[in-house]
Amino acid sequence: MVLQRELSRRDFLKLSAGSAAGLGLLLSGFPRFEELLAAAVDEVPVIWLQAGTCTGCSVAVLNSLSPRIQNILVDEVVPGKHVSLRYHATIMAGAGDVAMKALEETAAKKGGYVLIVEGAIPTKDNGVYCQIGEKDGNGITALQHATNLGQNALAVIALGTCAVGGGIPAAAPNPTGSVSVGTVFADAGIKTPVINLPGCPPHPDWFVGTVASVLIGGLSSVQVDEQGRPVAFYGKLIHDNCPRRGYFDLGKFAKTLSEPYCLYELGCKGPVTHADCPIRLWNSGTNWCVGANAPCIGCCEPTFPDAVSPFRQPVAIYGVTPPSWLPPMEEEKGGFSAGAAAGLGAIGGVVAGAAAGAVAASRLAKRQADKED
Ligand code: SF4
Ligand code: SF4
Question: Where are the domains of the chain?
Fold first, then answer.
């Protein structure tokens, strides 16, 4: 859904309720969280920890226009539930001891706060390469913060690809030994549930929609995939919703960035990247990467950037799924058009799409084999 206008609080509540229903989530197996949520706290304190990050995730999310971020993090977004941002190093007014006191007081409410982690966690040399604040003159590492705050949090949101998979700080040769939040928790035996919201940066809607759903329906209202990502936002491949998909299925590939055809041969990672960028669009519905003639670089995959590098080389595809909603494309004299199969209805379209995908896959395999010869 793309929001085109500023919302009143009333509008937002209605929208959030609809979004929660639409998300249809399920994150089971965390009875502790459900018990706590049933107690219906009036206020949900939030600690936003910025570890190995460029701050881009904060900038992206804080630029949410409709609803504005203060509707989410300050206002009473759900009747009886108020989110209170207690600590965020970049935007909080307090600094030094005052800021650390706010952090400590919130952390003392064990099991009563939500932790948002932005950025990867350096672990080499006891995590000395990222320190946030100090106590008694000694720096506190992000690793210590993530471990101490994570084990006592109600729930954790890993925000951005660096927090979800290590991202750019963890790219080879990874001199700081940076890892994801999930890896830190696994190594420390921390069982606190983590919702992963990858993206470099993540789309504001992915964060806002997830927070609203948790507030309205609890953590159990968020259906996640095997990697902890909300299915509502990361359930489909970029490739399956791409407007250029018809050209891929026909084997019509752009040779330069200015051509309107499929960008696969110019390195597009849409076939291996899960996100809804083609239908959600960025900057309040303005455009998205492929729409601006830039191949998707796979920034939402937890294995970004190493597994999708070099960005300008075609990625290996091991199977082609049919497009989600687009009709297959047919070649005509002098151009391309949506195929006649579009008139066969949804089922016919999917079958035709799958067939076209198989054709594209075999063409790609032949091209790759030709190149290797
Ligand atoms: S390879 Fe990229 S440009 Fe081509 S259809 Fe897939 S997502 Fe779109
Ligand atoms: S299209 Fe690809 S590179 Fe662009 S924001 Fe989406 S996942 Fe990232």
Answer: 9-232, 238-372
